Structures are given as C-alpha cells and as structure tokens.
Amino acid sequence: MAGTEEFRTDWAQQDFYAVLGVKKDAAAADIKKAYRKLAKDNHPDSHPGDTAKHDTFKKVAEAYDVIGDPEKRPKYDEMRRLYGSGGFGGARGGGGFGGSAGGGGFNLDDLLRDRGGAGGGGGIGDMFGDLFGGGGGRRQQARRPRKGPDAETSATISFTDAIDGVTISLRLTSDAACPACSGTGGKPGTRPHICATCEGAGYVTASMGGAFSMNETCPACAGRQLIYDEACPTCHGSGRGSSARTIQARIPAGVKDGQRIRLRGKGGAGEDGGPAGDLYVSVKVTPHRLFARKDDNLTIDVPVGFDELALGAEIKVPTLGGAPVTLRIPAGTPNGRSFRVRGKGAPRSDGTRGDLLVTVEVQVPAVLDEAARSAIEAYREAAAAKPLRAGLFEET
C-alpha cells in the first residue's frame, strides 16, 4: 500500500483536502465519508473504459491515504505550511521545490537525502522522510534474527511404545549454515559491501500502479543487505549447506498411528542468532499380536467356550503392560458381546486413561474326544424340542 511507497516531492504541491472536497480542519469522520462517496462514484469496476473516472479514483485513493491517516496527516499539514510560507527557501519563487541550488532555492530531493552531514543532526528528510516509508534513500536496517527452517522425518515404533511413550534416536540431514563461509555466502577472507540495489535495506519497492506499491525481498542480496564480490566456492553464494546429526526425540505416551508430532527447536539452525526451526515426526505404529486400538480405548478378542457363555464363568483377561484382570461373564451371554474394563486403555493428554474393551468369541473345537461328543449329543437331544431356526419359516 501507499504506506510503503517512497516520498514524492510533488505531494507538497498537491491539496489533498481539495481532492476530497473537504476543509483543512475537517474531522476524520467527514474525510472518510467524502472518500467513500468519491471512491464509489469513480470506481473502475462501475465505469469500465472511463479513463477520466479511473484517474479520479486513483487521486482520491492517494489523497485519503495521506490525510485519512492520523499519523501522516499532521506531517503533511506541516509540509504544506512550510511550502506555502516559503520555508524551503522560497516555495513560490524561482527556487523552492524542484529548483536548482544555483538559482538560490533548494532541491527538495537533495534536502530529503540530507541526514545532517558530519554534524550528525537530522535534515529535512528526518522531518518528513518517514511520511511514506522513507526519504530519498533507504536507511540500512540491522539484520534481524531469522528462525531456522522446519524439518520433516518419520519413525516406526511398537504398539506398546506408542501407548507408554518412548525416547528414540533420529538421524537427520538438514539445511544449515555453510561451514566454509559461516552462512555469509562470501568467499572466506573477503569483505562485503552494502548492496547497491536496495541500498542496504534488504528490500526493494515494487510499484502496483497509481499510489499503490509494496516491499519485496531484494533479489540481489536475498535480504542479507550485504554483497560479496566473490561468492563462497563451497556453497556458491547461497550461504547454506547440509549437516547430518543424531538427536534424541521423546515420543509422548498415547501417540496414534499416522500422528504427526511437533518437536520444538529440533529443526534447522537459525540465522543471525535466530531460534532453530521445528522438527515434525510422522509416527508409524506396528500392530500388536493381541491388542488393537479404537480412539483412546484398547480392544481385545478373547476366546470362550459355549458352556462359559451358557452357564456363566469368570475368566482371566490380559492387559497391556499390567497384571491380568478377572472378567465375570453372566449366564446366557451372547457370542460377540463386549465388556468394558475401565482405566486399562491408552493414556489421554489430561492424565486419565481410556478403557479396555473385551469381546468374547465362542471357539468351536475342531476335534472332540468321546466324552465331549457324548455330552454334546445329549445336549442336542435335550434341545431338540426348541429348534433355533423355527422362526425363520413363520409367515408374517
């Protein structure tokens, strides 16, 4: 937006109040109201092909961006006051804005570039240079710390480790500062100079048309603000290299298959004192021989005999990593019923645990001895008076 645009000397000669049709002491609400009406009446979308209205819309937007801003407006007013009173060396005379130094006036561009010379004091540029993001030149900014890049990896752990949590070793190859040039991108032993493209700012201003513009990372120095005439022969000027390292990573208890874990500060190294990036670990959990998982609950299928379901029984059921529990099966329990054993499931983030869901499954023996066969045949004869499938053939 215009707030990032360089200062333009001709703005001192423009009456933005007149452009919006308001008085110089107009309230902010009145300025906003006038702008909205003019912008609506001259918007390009409502008047395609009308270049006059398009130009008016740009001027209105430009004016509002200045006097509609509570910080820019007083600076603009002061600049206009100095201009009207000849405060720049005779604004109405032969010198003034845009005049030559030899003609007795001053060139505002030169004044805006003046930072006080050897005396160290601020010039006119210090008064108005920040009105639109800078004066005739850009001030070099201190290089800011940059967070390191994030890294991705994967790990395969056992079902039990996923439930209990585990610390694993991870071998990582990640982006890091070039060891030869320490990340500067320059040939070791050479000295840098300020980037001429961005004048040490680290960014350049790209015009978006009209009064609109935006800052972009300088393509010449990649935002580093400094340029080396000779690039580092190891990284070819990129300042980056690769490093291999082994880290210890803690996988929290209760992690699920396919879950992505974020480990803060375990990614690539930062620049200029910036923090390291993060490491994201995609976890693969191998299946267990007995147990499975459903949300925060563990599940297990337990084989039982027909007599245990018919007559009732108490059976021992294993738990994951703990002592077995005794499960009471009521007489007449149907096959496939699930029982809940509370607190024997996977751990939750709040410190509680899910449950163990036990499903009973009747096992039919493949081979019967004589005693078992005789007992089953006797049961068949006793139950013959109440055939199980009789209801299938009743008409509805």
Explain the overall architecture:
This protein is of the alpha+beta class. Among the domains are: 2-128, DnaJ domain (Helix Hairpins, Orthogonal Bundle), CATH 1.10.287; 292-382, Urease metallochaperone UreE, N-terminal domain (HSP40/DNAj peptide-binding domain), CATH 2.60.260. Helices cover 22% and strands 24% of the residues. The protein is built from 9 helices and 15 strands. The chain has helices spanning 16-20, 28-41, 51-67, 72-84, 108-113, 124-128, 159-164, 306-311, 370-383, and strands spanning 151-157, 166-177, 193-194, 203-209, 212-217, 226-227, 240-251, 260-263, 279-285, 292-294, 297-304, 313-319, 322-329, 338-341, 356-362. The strands form 6 sheets. A 4-stranded mixed beta sheet has the order 10-11-15-14. Helix 2 packs antiparallel against helix 3 (51-67). Residues 1-7 and 87-140 have low confidence and may be disordered.
Summarize the helices and strands and which ones pair or pack.
Elements: H1 16-20, H2 28-41, H3 51-67, H4 72-84, H5 108-113, H6 124-128, E1 151-157, H7 159-164, E2 166-177, E3 193-194, E4 203-209, E5 212-217, E6 226-227, E7 240-251, E8 260-263, E9 279-285, E10 292-294, E11 297-304, H8 306-311, E12 313-319, E13 322-329, E14 338-341, E15 356-362, H9 370-383
Parallel strand pairs: 1-9, 11-15
Antiparallel strand pairs: 2-7, 3-6, 4-5, 8-9, 10-11, 12-13, 14-15
Helix pairs in contact: 2-3
